[in-house]
Amino acid sequence: MGNGEGFTEISLRDLGPKPRGQIITPAWQYLKAAHSSVQGIFDGLSVVRRTRAEAREEFRGRLGTDEQNLLRAALVFTSSGLDACCKRLVRDTASVLIEGNADAARKFDEYLAHELAVGPSDPVATAIRSKTPRDELIKLYVAARTKASMQGSEDLRKRVRDTLGIPNAKVSKQRLALLDPFFTARNDIVHDMDYEDPSSTGAKRHTRVMESVRGQCDEVFAVASELIAGTAANVRALP
Q1: Closest Cα partner for 159 from 174, 170, 172, 143?
Q2: Structural contact between residues 70 and 41, judged by C-beta atoms closer than 8 angstroms
Q3: pTM of the model
């Protein structure tokens, strides 16, 4: 938003109200904390830009290295928030949905069928021999779905949306795919320090643009909100 002096600040869209249901509250709180942290980075960027602009008495010009790094930090914090939120959502709700949601139960059955087809691993074999094999197998399933960070929209689809039985009509594959440019940027930053060609001797980095970064972060928070809302709806619909 502008401040009337030619200086532009950037703000995330509001998350909106929390979906109904206690079971999704921790995941929602993680999302709110990440949203607040990223907005704080944008606020810090505004302070840096204003200080630089006032020193040269004008409000335009290319972003400096420190400002570019703040945009990169916003992308990384958004990614961390998405991971934390989605993992908490799966950990808190998957076991409940597997027992009462047909789509979530089917994905769990597919996991078991695959594990048995390739030959049970030691953890799976131990779970089968336990006094509560189904409970232990569900724990392994949830652990497998929440072990690593989200690397792209396919991870969100398979490890979150499908695991929790959220229908395509609520959060479509195409909707999730809109986040792939974000994941590309996040991976460039986290794995390669945002260098354009990490295999070369050059040190040129990708240029991050304020409005583009804000838009990517907004989309991530919106999709995370939709995943939480879809999960809450599924839980409310349980018999």
Answers
A1: 143
A2: yes
A3: 0.93
Q: Which residue has the tokens 């004008």?
A: 58
> CB-based burial of residue 42 (10 Å sphere; 0-12 exposed, 13-18 middle, 19+ buried)?
buried
Per-residue pLDDT reduced to its tens digit, 168-195: 999 999 999 999 999 999 999 999 999 9
How many angstroms from the chain centroid is the CA of residue 155? 10
The Cα–Cα gap between 104 and 109 comes to 9
Tokens of 166: 């959220």
For tokens 């079971």, what's the residue? 23
Token digits of residue 19: 């979906």
3-state secondary structure 32-76: HHHHHHHHHHHHHHHHHHHHHHHHHCCCCCCCCHHHHHHHHHHHH
Residue 8 φ/ψ, nearest 5 degrees: -105, 125
Whole-number Cα distances in Å, 220 to 66, 84, 176, 187: 24, 13, 9, 15
What 3-state class would DSSP assign to 205? strand
pLDDT tens, 7-65?
568 999 999 999 999 999 999 999 999 999 999 999 999 998 888 877 775 556 678 89
Q: Report which secondary-structure segment, H or E, holds 96.
A: helix 65-98
Sign of the C-alpha dihedral computed for residues 32, 36, 42 and 46 taken in this order: positive
- Is residue 20 helix, strand or coil? coil
> In the predicted model, what is the mean pLDDT of the chain?
93
